[in-house]
């Protein structure tokens, strides 16, 4: 039997919960049964620690009770209660003879966002805890190499390639609009490149979507802020000839911790654009650029200053090819093709090693 831990979250207007929620749905479609976990309340460090030592530990009791020999549990990483999971998972595996698959959403020890990074916890999460799993679904081959260098066995690792993205909204026809969509967290400290791009002279329409837009910034005639939308609504709101995948504080390269992280991760916004049938423009050194180039679903650039030429000078036939490929991949993402393929590979490998 296949099981998965389902965290009980509130609704959010960022893309954060979208990926894990889609994993829940796709695992359910594979025949998985959910085991509900509550998210700890946000009431201070002491209350949180007490909660984790009581409710947090008791929730793993449900896992222990349900899992039997040969059963498989899907766990999503990172999650609350790293230290508890690190102690309990090996114990459950030993006693119940069950198997564990982990799906990596982020490696905080690699991303190192200053406002949320906890060196001790994230080292445990990304080193010790990951090693406790029988199979690890990582983002791509670049992240796979990184994890192997950190001491994780290659036999455990399966590359996802790209995150899937559930959407039932109609894909828009945006063949001839010379415009660029940027969706995500628009907080200036999180996405400084956007505000540098706003100050830059360009000859295309820039369409912005997401929370925390700096309202003090004066927008020019060719810049429009559409607002913030729930992840399930966003694919139907996007307007753009291309969607941009970029990060950091520079127009010329993806710099800083968030920019460097693109060398290893699968940005969820890539999946967002493609699920809407929109080809992407992506940094050529990003790990996801390999997927985009292989499937001819976008354009690779070194600098954002190249976008003018890309948008305004691409031929109709070349764009049509990118557009059709984006639509084809988008349909796969809507159906969970890549996640289901990765899970099946994990299950097949574990069964062959019995």
TrEMBL record:
Glucosyltransferase 3-like N-terminal domain: residues covered: 3-162
Keyword DNA-binding: no
Annotated organism of origin: Gemella haemolysans
Transmembrane segments: none
Lineage top rank: taxon: Bacteria
Record keywords: Transferase
Coiled-coil residue spans: none
Domain Glucosyltransferase 3-like C-terminal intervals: 181-345
UniProt-recorded name of the protein: Glycosyltransferase
Tagged with keyword Electron transport: no
């Amino acid at each position: 039997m296949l099981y998965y831990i389902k965290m009980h979250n509130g609704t959010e207007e960022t893309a954060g919960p979208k990926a894990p929620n889609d994993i829940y749905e796709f695992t359910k479609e594979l025949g998985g049964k959910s085991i509900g976990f509550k998210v700890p309340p946000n009431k201070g460090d002491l209350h949180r620690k007490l909660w984790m030592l009581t409710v947090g530990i008791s929730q793993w009791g449900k896992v222990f009770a349900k899992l039997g020999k040969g059963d498989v549990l899907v766990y999503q990483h990172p999650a609350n209660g790293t230290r508890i999971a690190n102690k309990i998972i090996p114990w459950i595996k030993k006693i119940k003879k069950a198997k564990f698959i982990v799906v990596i959403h982020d490696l905080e020890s690699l991303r190192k966002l200053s406002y949320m990074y906890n060196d001790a916890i994230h080292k445990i999460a990304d080193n010790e805890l990951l090693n406790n799993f029988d199979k690890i679904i990582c983002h791509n081959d670049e992240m796979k190499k990184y994890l192997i260098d950190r001491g994780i066995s290659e036999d455990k690792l399966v590359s996802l390639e790209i995150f899937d993205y559930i959407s039932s909204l109609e894909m828009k026809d945006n063949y001839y609009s010379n415009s660029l969509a940027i969706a995500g967290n628009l907080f200036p400290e999180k996405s400084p490149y956007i505000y540098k791009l706003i100050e830059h002279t360009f000859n295309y329409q820039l369409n912005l979507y997401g929370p925390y837009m700096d309202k003090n910034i004066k927008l020019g005639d060719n810049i429009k802020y559409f607002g913030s939308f729930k992840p399930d609504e966003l694919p139907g709101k996007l307007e753009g000839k291309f969607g941009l995948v970029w990060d950091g504080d520079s127009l010329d390269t993806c710099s800083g911790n968030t920019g460097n992280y693109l060398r290893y991760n699968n940005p969820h916004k890539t999946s967002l654009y493609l699920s809407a049938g929109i080809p992407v423009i992506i940094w050529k050194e990003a790990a996801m650029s390999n997927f985009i180039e292989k499937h001819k679903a976008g354009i690779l650039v070194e600098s954002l200053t190249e976008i003018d030429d890309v948008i305004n000078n691409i031929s109709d036939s070349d764009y049509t090819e990118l557009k059709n490929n984006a639509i084809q991949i988008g349909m796969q993402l809507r159906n969970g093709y890549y996640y289901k393929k990765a899970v099946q590979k994990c299950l097949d490998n574990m069964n062959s090693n019995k």
